[in-house]
Amino acid sequence: MTPATTAARPSWPIRRLFPILATVGLVAAGMVGTIWGPRYYGKTAWALPDDLWGTMIAAQRLVHLNLAGLYTAPTQLVSLPGAAVILVPAVALIDAAGIALRDPGAHGPYPAAWLIAGPYQIVISAVALFAADALAERLGARRLKRFVLAAASATALWSVTARWGHPEDAVATGLLLYAIVALAGAKPGRAGWLAGAAVAVQPLVLLALPVLLVAIAPRRWPGFLTRAAVPSMVLLAAAAAANWTATISAVTSQPNSPAIDHPTPWIYLAPHLGHGQVAAGPFRIVAIVVACGCALIAARRWRAYPPAAPWRAEMLQELLWWTAVALSLRSVFEPVMVAYYLWPPLAVALIAAARSWSRLLPAGIAATVLTFFSQIQWRNPWAWWLPMITLLGLVLFFAWDSRAVSGPVTPAQVLPEPGEQFVADGAP
Protein backbone atom coordinates (compact mmCIF):
# COMPACT_ATOMS: atom_id res chain seq x y z
CA MET A 1 0.00 0.00 0.00
CA THR A 2 1.44 3.35 -0.99
CA PRO A 3 1.92 6.17 1.56
CA ALA A 4 -0.67 8.27 -0.27
CA THR A 5 -3.24 5.50 0.00
CA THR A 6 -2.45 4.96 3.68
CA ALA A 7 -2.90 8.66 4.40
CA ALA A 8 -6.18 8.81 2.50
CA ARG A 9 -7.66 5.80 4.24
CA PRO A 10 -9.68 6.76 7.35
CA SER A 11 -8.91 5.05 10.64
CA TRP A 12 -11.09 2.14 11.75
CA PRO A 13 -13.12 4.16 14.32
CA ILE A 14 -13.95 6.72 11.64
CA ARG A 15 -14.91 4.10 9.06
CA ARG A 16 -17.10 2.26 11.58
CA LEU A 17 -18.42 5.32 13.41
CA PHE A 18 -22.08 4.55 12.73
CA PRO A 19 -22.11 0.98 14.11
CA ILE A 20 -20.10 2.22 17.11
CA LEU A 21 -22.72 4.89 17.83
CA ALA A 22 -25.52 2.40 17.20
CA THR A 23 -23.96 -0.04 19.68
CA VAL A 24 -23.58 2.62 22.37
CA GLY A 25 -27.17 3.73 21.81
CA LEU A 26 -28.50 0.17 21.92
CA VAL A 27 -26.64 -0.60 25.17
CA ALA A 28 -28.00 2.59 26.76
CA ALA A 29 -31.55 2.03 25.53
CA GLY A 30 -31.47 -1.65 26.46
CA MET A 31 -30.29 -1.08 30.01
CA VAL A 32 -32.57 1.90 30.64
CA GLY A 33 -35.53 0.04 29.18
CA THR A 34 -35.00 -3.09 31.26
CA ILE A 35 -34.15 -1.36 34.55
CA TRP A 36 -36.28 1.78 34.59
CA GLY A 37 -38.77 1.07 31.82
CA PRO A 38 -41.08 -1.13 33.93
CA ARG A 39 -41.78 1.80 36.28
CA TYR A 40 -43.97 3.33 33.58
CA TYR A 41 -46.20 0.24 33.83
CA GLY A 42 -46.42 0.33 37.61
CA LYS A 43 -43.89 -2.48 38.10
CA THR A 44 -40.73 -2.45 40.16
CA ALA A 45 -38.95 -5.62 39.00
CA TRP A 46 -36.57 -5.29 36.07
CA ALA A 47 -37.91 -6.42 32.69
CA LEU A 48 -35.26 -9.01 31.90
CA PRO A 49 -34.95 -11.35 28.90
CA ASP A 50 -35.63 -14.67 30.64
CA ASP A 51 -34.19 -16.80 27.83
CA LEU A 52 -30.69 -15.47 28.47
CA TRP A 53 -30.36 -16.93 31.96
CA GLY A 54 -30.55 -20.57 30.94
CA THR A 55 -27.78 -20.07 28.37
CA MET A 56 -25.71 -18.24 30.99
CA ILE A 57 -26.01 -21.21 33.32
CA ALA A 58 -24.81 -23.43 30.45
CA ALA A 59 -21.85 -21.05 30.01
CA GLN A 60 -21.15 -21.22 33.75
CA ARG A 61 -20.99 -24.99 33.50
CA LEU A 62 -18.47 -24.61 30.69
CA VAL A 63 -16.38 -22.33 32.90
CA HIS A 64 -16.44 -25.06 35.57
CA LEU A 65 -15.67 -27.72 32.90
CA ASN A 66 -19.00 -29.44 33.57
CA LEU A 67 -19.72 -30.52 29.99
CA ALA A 68 -22.15 -33.20 31.12
CA GLY A 69 -24.51 -30.51 32.41
CA LEU A 70 -24.51 -28.41 29.25
CA TYR A 71 -27.88 -29.73 28.03
CA THR A 72 -29.49 -30.61 31.37
CA ALA A 73 -31.98 -28.55 33.38
CA PRO A 74 -32.18 -25.68 33.94
CA THR A 75 -30.08 -24.59 30.93
CA GLN A 76 -32.88 -25.19 28.36
CA LEU A 77 -30.14 -25.16 25.70
CA VAL A 78 -31.27 -26.58 22.33
CA SER A 79 -28.70 -24.88 20.08
CA LEU A 80 -25.11 -25.99 19.50
CA PRO A 81 -22.59 -25.39 22.31
CA GLY A 82 -21.27 -22.22 20.68
CA ALA A 83 -24.31 -20.37 22.04
CA ALA A 84 -22.91 -20.91 25.53
CA VAL A 85 -19.27 -20.43 24.53
CA ILE A 86 -19.83 -16.80 23.50
CA LEU A 87 -21.14 -16.00 27.01
CA VAL A 88 -18.16 -17.53 28.84
CA PRO A 89 -16.27 -14.20 29.30
CA ALA A 90 -19.30 -12.54 30.91
CA VAL A 91 -19.99 -15.50 33.19
CA ALA A 92 -16.33 -15.72 34.19
CA LEU A 93 -16.46 -12.02 35.17
CA ILE A 94 -19.70 -12.60 37.09
CA ASP A 95 -18.10 -15.49 38.96
CA ALA A 96 -14.97 -13.47 39.69
CA ALA A 97 -17.15 -10.68 41.14
CA GLY A 98 -18.82 -13.19 43.47
CA ILE A 99 -22.28 -12.59 41.97
CA ALA A 100 -24.74 -15.46 42.19
CA LEU A 101 -26.19 -16.86 38.96
CA ARG A 102 -29.43 -18.60 39.88
CA ASP A 103 -32.07 -20.67 38.16
CA PRO A 104 -33.83 -18.69 35.36
CA GLY A 105 -37.11 -18.83 37.29
CA ALA A 106 -35.61 -17.52 40.51
CA HIS A 107 -33.10 -14.85 39.57
CA GLY A 108 -34.91 -12.25 41.67
CA PRO A 109 -36.29 -8.85 40.73
CA TYR A 110 -32.90 -7.07 40.64
CA PRO A 111 -30.14 -9.52 39.68
CA ALA A 112 -26.72 -7.87 39.82
CA ALA A 113 -25.55 -10.26 37.10
CA TRP A 114 -27.64 -8.31 34.58
CA LEU A 115 -25.40 -5.26 35.03
CA ILE A 116 -22.61 -7.31 33.47
CA ALA A 117 -24.52 -9.70 31.23
CA GLY A 118 -26.81 -7.06 29.73
CA PRO A 119 -24.18 -4.75 28.20
CA TYR A 120 -21.96 -7.70 27.28
CA GLN A 121 -24.57 -9.59 25.28
CA ILE A 122 -25.57 -6.42 23.42
CA VAL A 123 -21.95 -5.57 22.58
CA ILE A 124 -21.16 -9.02 21.18
CA SER A 125 -24.43 -8.95 19.24
CA ALA A 126 -23.27 -5.73 17.59
CA VAL A 127 -20.87 -7.75 15.43
CA ALA A 128 -23.84 -7.89 13.05
CA LEU A 129 -23.94 -4.07 12.90
CA PHE A 130 -20.24 -3.83 12.05
CA ALA A 131 -20.52 -6.54 9.41
CA ALA A 132 -23.52 -4.76 7.90
CA ASP A 133 -21.58 -1.50 7.67
CA ALA A 134 -18.61 -3.26 6.06
CA LEU A 135 -20.90 -4.78 3.44
CA ALA A 136 -22.72 -1.49 2.83
CA GLU A 137 -19.32 0.12 2.26
CA ARG A 138 -18.48 -2.53 -0.31
CA LEU A 139 -21.83 -1.90 -1.99
CA GLY A 140 -20.83 1.73 -2.44
CA ALA A 141 -23.45 3.13 -0.04
CA ARG A 142 -22.77 6.73 0.97
CA ARG A 143 -22.31 7.69 4.60
CA LEU A 144 -25.85 8.99 5.11
CA LYS A 145 -27.28 5.69 3.85
CA ARG A 146 -24.93 3.82 6.17
CA PHE A 147 -26.13 5.98 9.06
CA VAL A 148 -29.75 5.08 8.31
CA LEU A 149 -28.78 1.42 7.90
CA ALA A 150 -27.06 1.40 11.31
CA ALA A 151 -30.06 3.04 12.97
CA ALA A 152 -32.59 0.65 11.40
CA SER A 153 -30.40 -2.38 12.08
CA ALA A 154 -29.89 -1.44 15.74
CA THR A 155 -33.63 -0.89 16.19
CA ALA A 156 -34.36 -4.36 14.84
CA LEU A 157 -31.55 -5.85 16.94
CA TRP A 158 -33.29 -4.66 20.11
CA SER A 159 -35.73 -7.56 19.79
CA VAL A 160 -32.92 -10.12 19.79
CA THR A 161 -30.89 -8.67 22.66
CA ALA A 162 -32.66 -6.47 25.21
CA ARG A 163 -36.09 -8.01 24.62
CA TRP A 164 -35.37 -11.73 24.27
CA GLY A 165 -31.74 -12.28 25.25
CA HIS A 166 -30.53 -14.39 22.33
CA PRO A 167 -27.13 -12.95 21.37
CA GLU A 168 -26.27 -16.22 19.63
CA ASP A 169 -28.59 -15.33 16.74
CA ALA A 170 -26.91 -11.96 16.26
CA VAL A 171 -23.37 -13.28 16.64
CA ALA A 172 -24.01 -16.12 14.18
CA THR A 173 -25.57 -13.74 11.65
CA GLY A 174 -22.69 -11.30 12.05
CA LEU A 175 -20.13 -14.06 11.44
CA LEU A 176 -22.11 -15.17 8.40
CA LEU A 177 -22.04 -11.62 7.04
CA TYR A 178 -18.29 -11.45 7.55
CA ALA A 179 -18.04 -14.73 5.65
CA ILE A 180 -19.75 -12.95 2.76
CA VAL A 181 -17.26 -10.09 3.11
CA ALA A 182 -14.46 -12.66 2.79
CA LEU A 183 -16.09 -14.25 -0.27
CA ALA A 184 -16.46 -10.84 -1.90
CA GLY A 185 -12.75 -10.34 -1.38
CA ALA A 186 -11.89 -13.72 -2.98
CA LYS A 187 -10.98 -15.38 0.33
CA PRO A 188 -13.04 -18.60 0.42
CA GLY A 189 -10.81 -20.23 3.04
CA ARG A 190 -11.45 -17.44 5.56
CA ALA A 191 -15.13 -17.49 4.59
CA GLY A 192 -15.33 -21.20 5.40
CA TRP A 193 -13.96 -20.75 8.91
CA LEU A 194 -16.25 -17.78 9.57
CA ALA A 195 -19.27 -19.73 8.33
CA GLY A 196 -18.21 -22.67 10.51
CA ALA A 197 -17.99 -20.45 13.58
CA ALA A 198 -21.45 -19.06 12.75
CA VAL A 199 -22.98 -22.54 12.54
CA ALA A 200 -21.36 -23.53 15.83
CA VAL A 201 -23.01 -20.57 17.55
CA GLN A 202 -26.48 -20.90 15.97
CA PRO A 203 -27.22 -23.49 13.25
CA LEU A 204 -29.96 -21.32 11.70
CA VAL A 205 -27.25 -20.02 9.35
CA LEU A 206 -27.17 -23.46 7.70
CA LEU A 207 -30.05 -22.12 5.62
CA ALA A 208 -27.69 -19.64 3.97
CA LEU A 209 -24.83 -22.03 3.19
CA PRO A 210 -26.35 -23.35 -0.08
CA VAL A 211 -26.62 -19.75 -1.30
CA LEU A 212 -23.00 -19.05 -0.37
CA LEU A 213 -21.90 -22.08 -2.39
CA VAL A 214 -23.31 -20.35 -5.47
CA ALA A 215 -20.47 -17.82 -5.26
CA ILE A 216 -17.72 -20.42 -4.77
CA ALA A 217 -16.04 -22.43 -7.52
CA PRO A 218 -17.17 -26.10 -7.24
CA ARG A 219 -13.57 -27.26 -6.87
CA ARG A 220 -13.40 -25.24 -3.63
CA TRP A 221 -16.61 -26.68 -2.14
CA PRO A 222 -14.93 -29.55 -0.24
CA GLY A 223 -12.53 -27.21 1.53
CA PHE A 224 -15.22 -24.65 2.30
CA LEU A 225 -17.68 -27.24 3.65
CA THR A 226 -14.99 -28.94 5.71
CA ARG A 227 -14.07 -25.68 7.39
CA ALA A 228 -17.76 -24.89 7.89
CA ALA A 229 -18.32 -28.24 9.63
CA VAL A 230 -15.25 -28.57 11.86
CA PRO A 231 -16.12 -26.06 14.68
CA SER A 232 -19.60 -27.52 15.21
CA MET A 233 -18.38 -31.11 15.07
CA VAL A 234 -15.67 -30.48 17.64
CA LEU A 235 -17.98 -28.71 20.10
CA LEU A 236 -20.84 -31.15 19.64
CA ALA A 237 -18.55 -34.17 19.96
CA ALA A 238 -17.19 -32.86 23.25
CA ALA A 239 -20.71 -32.30 24.65
CA ALA A 240 -21.96 -35.67 23.38
CA ALA A 241 -19.00 -37.51 24.85
CA ALA A 242 -19.81 -36.02 28.25
CA ASN A 243 -23.59 -36.67 28.09
CA TRP A 244 -24.76 -38.40 24.93
CA THR A 245 -28.46 -38.74 25.78
CA ALA A 246 -29.12 -35.15 26.85
CA THR A 247 -27.04 -33.67 24.01
CA ILE A 248 -28.57 -35.66 21.16
CA SER A 249 -32.11 -35.27 22.49
CA ALA A 250 -31.85 -31.47 22.77
CA VAL A 251 -30.05 -30.90 19.46
CA THR A 252 -32.16 -33.21 17.27
CA SER A 253 -35.69 -32.74 18.64
CA GLN A 254 -35.46 -28.94 19.08
CA PRO A 255 -38.41 -28.80 21.52
CA ASN A 256 -40.56 -25.69 21.71
CA SER A 257 -43.70 -24.83 23.63
CA PRO A 258 -46.80 -23.52 21.82
CA ALA A 259 -48.28 -22.56 25.18
CA ILE A 260 -45.48 -20.05 25.78
CA ASP A 261 -44.54 -18.91 22.27
CA HIS A 262 -46.51 -18.32 19.05
CA PRO A 263 -47.92 -21.44 17.35
CA THR A 264 -48.10 -21.25 13.56
CA PRO A 265 -50.29 -23.24 11.14
CA TRP A 266 -47.53 -25.89 10.96
CA ILE A 267 -48.27 -26.77 14.58
CA TYR A 268 -50.97 -29.19 13.38
CA LEU A 269 -48.34 -31.31 11.58
CA ALA A 270 -45.49 -31.08 14.10
CA PRO A 271 -44.54 -34.16 16.17
CA HIS A 272 -45.77 -33.71 19.72
CA LEU A 273 -43.40 -34.36 22.61
CA GLY A 274 -44.18 -34.66 26.28
CA HIS A 275 -45.17 -31.79 28.57
CA GLY A 276 -47.08 -29.93 25.84
CA GLN A 277 -44.01 -29.37 23.64
CA VAL A 278 -43.57 -29.99 19.92
CA ALA A 279 -40.48 -30.88 17.87
CA ALA A 280 -39.28 -28.12 15.55
CA GLY A 281 -36.40 -30.14 14.09
CA PRO A 282 -38.28 -31.86 11.21
CA PHE A 283 -39.61 -28.57 9.82
CA ARG A 284 -36.15 -27.05 9.93
CA ILE A 285 -35.02 -29.84 7.62
CA VAL A 286 -37.82 -28.82 5.22
CA ALA A 287 -36.56 -25.24 5.38
CA ILE A 288 -33.03 -26.40 4.45
CA VAL A 289 -34.40 -28.32 1.44
CA VAL A 290 -36.28 -25.22 0.23
CA ALA A 291 -33.14 -23.13 0.81
CA CYS A 292 -31.31 -25.45 -1.57
CA GLY A 293 -34.01 -24.69 -4.15
CA CYS A 294 -33.42 -20.97 -3.63
CA ALA A 295 -29.71 -21.56 -4.19
CA LEU A 296 -30.44 -23.22 -7.54
CA ILE A 297 -32.39 -20.15 -8.67
CA ALA A 298 -29.64 -17.87 -7.40
CA ALA A 299 -27.05 -19.93 -9.28
CA ARG A 300 -28.83 -19.39 -12.59
CA ARG A 301 -28.89 -15.64 -12.00
CA TRP A 302 -25.27 -15.63 -10.82
CA ARG A 303 -24.10 -17.03 -14.16
CA ALA A 304 -25.43 -13.87 -15.85
CA TYR A 305 -22.73 -11.78 -14.18
CA PRO A 306 -19.33 -11.39 -15.84
CA PRO A 307 -16.46 -12.80 -13.73
CA ALA A 308 -15.02 -10.20 -11.38
CA ALA A 309 -12.66 -10.24 -8.43
CA PRO A 310 -13.33 -8.53 -6.11
CA TRP A 311 -17.07 -8.72 -6.72
CA ARG A 312 -19.02 -5.97 -8.37
CA ALA A 313 -21.64 -4.24 -6.23
CA GLU A 314 -24.52 -5.86 -8.12
CA MET A 315 -23.13 -9.33 -7.44
CA LEU A 316 -22.83 -8.65 -3.72
CA GLN A 317 -26.32 -7.17 -3.53
CA GLU A 318 -27.77 -10.21 -5.30
CA LEU A 319 -26.09 -12.68 -2.95
CA LEU A 320 -27.20 -10.71 0.11
CA TRP A 321 -30.83 -10.72 -1.05
CA TRP A 322 -30.89 -14.46 -1.63
CA THR A 323 -29.22 -14.97 1.76
CA ALA A 324 -32.04 -12.98 3.36
CA VAL A 325 -34.62 -15.11 1.54
CA ALA A 326 -32.94 -18.30 2.74
CA LEU A 327 -32.83 -17.09 6.35
CA SER A 328 -36.52 -16.10 6.19
CA LEU A 329 -37.47 -19.74 5.57
CA ARG A 330 -37.03 -20.48 9.26
CA SER A 331 -39.96 -18.19 10.03
CA VAL A 332 -42.00 -19.51 7.12
CA PHE A 333 -41.81 -23.17 8.21
CA GLU A 334 -41.43 -22.95 11.99
CA PRO A 335 -44.27 -24.69 13.94
CA VAL A 336 -43.70 -22.46 16.98
CA MET A 337 -42.19 -18.99 16.64
CA VAL A 338 -40.79 -16.22 18.79
CA ALA A 339 -40.53 -12.61 17.62
CA TYR A 340 -36.73 -12.60 17.42
CA TYR A 341 -36.83 -15.40 14.79
CA LEU A 342 -37.73 -12.68 12.29
CA TRP A 343 -34.55 -10.67 12.85
CA PRO A 344 -31.83 -12.47 10.79
CA PRO A 345 -33.52 -11.99 7.39
CA LEU A 346 -34.37 -8.40 8.33
CA ALA A 347 -30.72 -7.68 9.12
CA VAL A 348 -29.49 -9.02 5.79
CA ALA A 349 -32.31 -7.55 3.70
CA LEU A 350 -31.58 -4.06 5.04
CA ILE A 351 -28.00 -4.33 3.79
CA ALA A 352 -29.20 -5.47 0.37
CA ALA A 353 -31.40 -2.36 0.25
CA ALA A 354 -28.63 0.04 1.28
CA ARG A 355 -27.58 1.13 -2.22
CA SER A 356 -30.78 3.06 -2.94
CA TRP A 357 -32.97 5.39 -0.89
CA SER A 358 -36.02 4.07 -2.73
CA ARG A 359 -35.33 0.64 -1.26
CA LEU A 360 -33.63 1.45 2.03
CA LEU A 361 -36.30 3.79 3.43
CA PRO A 362 -39.36 1.56 2.86
CA ALA A 363 -37.41 -1.55 3.90
CA GLY A 364 -36.24 0.19 7.07
CA ILE A 365 -39.74 1.39 7.94
CA ALA A 366 -41.25 -2.04 7.31
CA ALA A 367 -38.50 -3.72 9.38
CA THR A 368 -39.11 -1.32 12.28
CA VAL A 369 -42.87 -1.89 12.18
CA LEU A 370 -42.34 -5.65 12.08
CA THR A 371 -39.88 -5.54 14.99
CA PHE A 372 -42.37 -3.92 17.35
CA PHE A 373 -45.59 -5.39 15.93
CA SER A 374 -44.18 -8.90 16.39
CA GLN A 375 -44.02 -8.40 20.17
CA ILE A 376 -47.80 -8.69 20.52
CA GLN A 377 -49.05 -11.75 22.41
CA TRP A 378 -51.60 -13.23 19.98
CA ARG A 379 -51.72 -17.02 20.23
CA ASN A 380 -53.95 -17.93 17.29
CA PRO A 381 -51.85 -19.93 14.75
CA TRP A 382 -53.00 -17.73 11.84
CA ALA A 383 -53.63 -14.34 13.48
CA TRP A 384 -49.99 -13.77 14.47
CA TRP A 385 -47.98 -15.74 11.89
CA LEU A 386 -49.71 -14.53 8.72
CA PRO A 387 -49.26 -10.76 9.35
CA MET A 388 -45.64 -11.31 10.38
CA ILE A 389 -44.79 -13.32 7.27
CA THR A 390 -46.57 -10.72 5.15
CA LEU A 391 -44.50 -7.90 6.65
CA LEU A 392 -41.33 -9.96 6.27
CA GLY A 393 -42.23 -10.50 2.62
CA LEU A 394 -42.66 -6.74 2.23
CA VAL A 395 -39.17 -6.10 3.59
CA LEU A 396 -37.74 -8.60 1.09
CA PHE A 397 -39.78 -7.03 -1.70
CA PHE A 398 -38.49 -3.54 -0.91
CA ALA A 399 -34.89 -4.83 -0.69
CA TRP A 400 -35.03 -6.52 -4.11
CA ASP A 401 -33.29 -4.75 -6.98
CA SER A 402 -34.89 -5.90 -10.23
CA ARG A 403 -32.09 -4.22 -12.16
CA ALA A 404 -29.35 -6.26 -10.45
CA VAL A 405 -28.54 -8.33 -13.54
CA SER A 406 -30.10 -6.42 -16.44
CA GLY A 407 -28.93 -2.95 -15.44
CA PRO A 408 -25.46 -1.43 -15.62
CA VAL A 409 -22.81 -3.38 -13.78
CA THR A 410 -20.55 -1.16 -11.70
CA PRO A 411 -17.71 -2.00 -9.36
CA ALA A 412 -18.26 -1.69 -5.62
CA GLN A 413 -16.66 1.42 -4.16
CA VAL A 414 -14.65 0.29 -1.16
CA LEU A 415 -11.36 1.32 0.33
CA PRO A 416 -8.78 -1.47 0.53
CA GLU A 417 -8.55 -3.48 3.73
CA PRO A 418 -5.26 -3.61 5.66
CA GLY A 419 -2.70 -5.61 3.70
CA GLU A 420 -4.45 -5.21 0.34
CA GLN A 421 -2.37 -3.64 -2.42
CA PHE A 422 -4.03 -0.69 -4.11
CA VAL A 423 -3.52 -0.36 -7.83
CA ALA A 424 -5.19 2.01 -10.26
CA ASP A 425 -7.37 0.70 -13.07
CA GLY A 426 -5.16 -0.56 -15.84
CA ALA A 427 -2.04 -0.79 -13.64
CA PRO A 428 -0.14 -4.11 -13.63
* Structural class assignment: mainly alpha
Estimate the mean pLDDT confidence.
Answer: 88
Poorly predicted regions are 1-7, 406-428
Order of helices and strands: HHHHHHHHHHHHHHEEEHHEHHH
- Level of helix content? 55-70%
Number of beta-strand segments = 4
Q: Measured on Cα atoms, how large is the radius of gyration?
A: 21 Å
Shape: globular
What percentage of the residues does DSSP assign to strands (E)?
Answer: under 5%
Enumerate how many helices there are, as a single number: 19
Strand order of the largest sheet: 1-3
How far apart the termini lie comes to 14 Å
Quickly count the domains.
Answer: 1
Largest sheet: 2 strands, antiparallel
